[in-house]
Write a structure and sequence with these properties.
mainly alpha; 14 helices; 2 strands
Length: 368
């Protein structure tokens, strides 16, 4: 499979030229929702807040004017100017209440849209972050369709433009790709489990405990605060259930082998290409700062990214990919680098200069 945006050239190359599965990038799906709806709702909320602030200032001005007119000696509540000013105060108060009700309405719609958008992110997992149970393709289709129904209903209420609705429709059109990616993942898992030749007890252990635990571990390092906390809680509960379960005890080496296989299976599900895009953007930044890096320098930065840069756990990208620690990059370089020759000494340089001077004088004498 290849995970990427919906560029026509990329999609055609993957599906037609390579003939493999094209997985949509979740980031671009969320971006279309932002451009089509949530961005519009955020701007509308900002305008409502500005209007409310303006109405409050206008009300305060009218109230101050009303107090000043009442403070004039001999003024009464029946005076024409005071009555007119009082009507203005009442009108400003009604305007403030209308602005407040409108602000509460647009904030409620914005919150509902944000929750629906967040639902798409939280549900696009092969395992539920709340229970750890596997999520089937038809379940994902129903959950995403319900979320998009809410978004489209809010778009109608918010009177979005046709272009904004097209963005939302484009995002909804990716439901099929997301569902296919989940189905593709479960097909790979089924084939992987078959190739492992597991018995019944090992299969139950692998599918119900090890695979969801490894996926939740992977999710913890990639998700936001809320999803990370939810995935961590579910993972710890599954690990506790795994320790307390009844059944035959699996040997340590075999258990580690199954855990490694579960980790490989969990990595089959790719929601985003942010890791590759982040690396490419870093190279682009270096390229821009250094004014056209050569091919050799670009390749050297790729090597540094794969074999030198480490995460918090101390592992490099190559170690995470090959599941074994590679040779230290500096030791590898020291074995292959060509050591510079020793520079010539100062005495030798002086002797060379003296010989050059003597030969020059000899040539001058011959000419004379």
């Amino acid at each position: 499979q290849v995970t990427g945006d919906e560029a026509g050239g990329l999609t055609s190359a993957v599906t037609n030229l390579l003939g493999i599965h094209k997985s949509s990038d979740l980031f671009h799906i969320q971006q279309d929702i932002t451009k089509g709806l949530t961005g519009h709702l955020a701007r509308r909320t900002e305008r409502a807040e500005v209007a409310l602030k303006k109405s409050l200032e206008e009300k305060e001005t009218k109230l101050q004017e009303f107090r000043e007119k009442l403070g004039i000696p001999g003024a009464t509540i029946e005076d024409t100017n005071i009555v007119k000013t009082g009507h203005k105060v009442l009108k400003a108060n009604a305007q403030e209440e209308a602005c407040l009700r409108y602000l509460e309405k647009v904030k409620s719609e914005q919150k509902t849209a944000q929750e629906a958008r967040r639902t798409i992110t939280e549900k696009y997992h092969p395992f539920s972050l709340e229970t750890g149970n596997g999520r089937k393709a038809y379940q994902l289709n129903d959950e995403l369709s319900e979320a998009y129904d809410q978004l489209e209903l809010i778009a109608e209420k918010a009177k979005c433009t046709d272009n904004q609705k097209k963005k939302l429709q484009k995002s909804r059109g990716m439901i099929g790709s997301l569902v296919q990616t989940l189905a593709f993942f479960w097909c790979l898992v089924t084939r992987f489990v078959f190739n492992l030749q597991l018995n019944e007890e090992e299969r139950v252990l692998f599918e119900q405990f090890l695979l969801p635990i490894e996926y939740l571990k992977m999710t913890e390092g990639r998700s936001g605060k809320k999803e990370r906390r939810l995935a961590e809680c579910t993972r710890k509960r599954l690990e506790g259930a795994l320790r307390k379960r009844d059944g035959p005890v699996i040997e340590g080496a075999r258990l580690e082998q199954l855990k490694q296989g579960a980790r490989e299976c969990a990595e089959f599900f790719q929601r985003s290409s942010s890791c590759v895009e982040g690396h490419n953007s870093a190279l682009s930044l270096k390229h821009h700062a250094s004014r056209h890096l050569s091919v050799g320098k670009l390749n050297s930065r790729v090597v540094l990214h794969n074999y030198f840069s480490k995460r918090k756990d101390g592992r490099t990208a190559a170690e995470r990919f090959f599941h074994q620690k590679p040779k230290d990059i500096f030791d590898w370089l020291l074995e292959r680098v060509s050591w510079p020759v020793r520079p010539r000494g100062r005495k030798r340089k002086m002797e060379t200069a003296a010989r050059h001077t003597a030969s020059t004088l000899t040539r001058l004498e011959l000419v004379a």
